[in-house]
Design a protein that fits this description.
alpha+beta; 4-stranded mixed β-sheet; binds iron/sulfur cluster
Length: about 400
């Protein structure tokens, strides 16, 4: 991290150099005391001028800050803001969240994705009320003991709410520190090193602002594909910048293509013009959310055959497959799905929740009362758009 002359143009990306760094895999020397002081000072000065005015920065309420930290995991600020505001008007205190039923919690979260976050918030709120008398814990060990709170989330909450010197290492911070130190391995292989660097840099006099500034630097300047090194307060100390390899860092793990599943989905109608929906088991992906039933299309199987088989296995009823409604492509973290959605008619049998927690017959209007995953909300929109045609048919 040797200082360079201010605001000089970066050298062109030097990939052979990057490969040489990777081969040698020599860790960068830790910053000196003088460098640390300058890094802290320059970042805090930049933050004073360029830091974002975000709703959760205007409060010291650990509950509100905790909600924001959880929502910001894997979700961008502009998406989070309206959800954050709606959540706090629906559940203004930890007690109100703890006392809520899970369906209303999931409904308020609907659309944000990664629903385990909402289930964990709910369970953690109950823990806070039962174990900590309704007060958010103020030690790292206690905060980490709550569902859904890891070390970086705990560090973010405790520094923001209580100004405690707890360091952070979220995705943005990993990228900044990997570039600052020209990390010669993927961050996942250097977590102790990165945690140590985050802790070394953290300003013990002002941990709240320092951590917020570091998050802002990663989100607005040291961005994934085109870091704005000219506007960066750390340019003079940045090893990746001085080597011209900032756009090539952090190094990535070799990844294999995501598996792709074809799914047959049934919108099952009964004679009262109601639709059958089911609630997914609590454990596993999208636990506790409602969905239209269906399952994976096996090799050599048609969509229609798949739907008839899956509905018999899951709900012990027979259906007749009718018109195609919509095809939806959706990506999750570890796989992609294509949903082939068909109107179906209930023919025989009493629906039984064999592979789900609960089933309901509901009207099209009543679907709004239930929390659904995103791909299923697209099905509901298609049903609404399709409804006049069905009425005429
Ligand atoms: Fe380094 Fe550029 Fe990132 Fe600043 S923006 S830390 S100079 S790579």
């Amino acid at each position: 991290m040797s200082p360079r002359s201010k605001r000089s143009a970066p050298p062109a990306a030097d990939l052979p150099l990057l490969q040489a760094i990777a081969r040698s895999a020599q860790p960068a020397p830790p910053p000196t005391v003088t460098e640390v002081a300058d890094l802290r000072r320059s970042l805090l000065t930049w933050y004073g001028h360029q830091g974002r005015d975000l709703p959760w920065r205007n409060t010291r309420d650990p509950y509100a800050i905790w909600i924001s930290e959880i929502m910001l995991q894997q979700t961008q600020v502009k998406t989070v803001i309206p959800y954050y505001q709606r959540w706090l008007s629906q559940f203004p205190t930890v007690e109100s969240l703890a006392a809520a039923d899970q369906q209303s919690v999931l409904k308020t979260w609907e659309g944000l994705g990664y629903y385990a976050r909402a289930r964990n918030l709910h369970r953690a709120a109950q823990d806070i009320v039962e174990r900590f008398g309704g007060r958010f814990p103020s030690t790292l060990a206690e905060a980490i003991s709550l569902p859904g709170i890891g070390q970086t989330t705990a560090g973010g909450i405790l520094s923001a709410a209580f100004n405690l010197p707890t360091s952070i290492l979220d995705g943005n911070v990993k990228r900044v520190l990997a570039r600052l130190s020209a990390l010669a391995t993927p961050p996942a292989k250097a977590m102790p090193q990165l945690w140590a660097l985050s802790g070394t840099l953290l300003d013990p006099q002002n941990p709240r602002d320092f951590n917020q500034a570091l998050m802002d630097l990663g989100a607005t300047v040291c961005t994934p594909s085109q870091p704005d090194c000219y506007g960066c307060p750390w340019q003079n100390h940045c090893r990746a910048y001085s080597l011209g390899i900032q756009a090539a860092l952090p190094m990535r793990e070799a990844s294999s293509p995501l598996p792709h599943k074809q799914i047959g989905v049934a919108v099952i109608w009964n004679d009262q013009n109601q639709i059958l929906i089911d609630r997914r088991p609590q454990s596993g992906l999208l636990g506790g959310l409602w969905e239209f039933p269906g399952g994976k299309i096996e090799a050599g199987e048609t969509v229609e055959d798949c739907i008839v088989r899956e509905i018999r296995e899951e709900l012990a009823i027979d259906v007749e497959v009718g018109d195609h409604l919509i095809t939806i492509d959706h990506a999750y973290t570890h796989f992609r799905v294509t949903l082939q959605v068909y109107h179906c008619r209930h023919v025989a049998g009493e629906p039984t929740p064999i592979e789900c927690d609960e089933i309901r017959w509901v009207t099209l209007d009543a679907l709004d009362e239930f929390p659904f995953p995103k791909a299923n909300t697209q099905i509901i929109e298609a049903l609404r758009a399709n409804a006049p045609d069905r009425a005429e048919a």
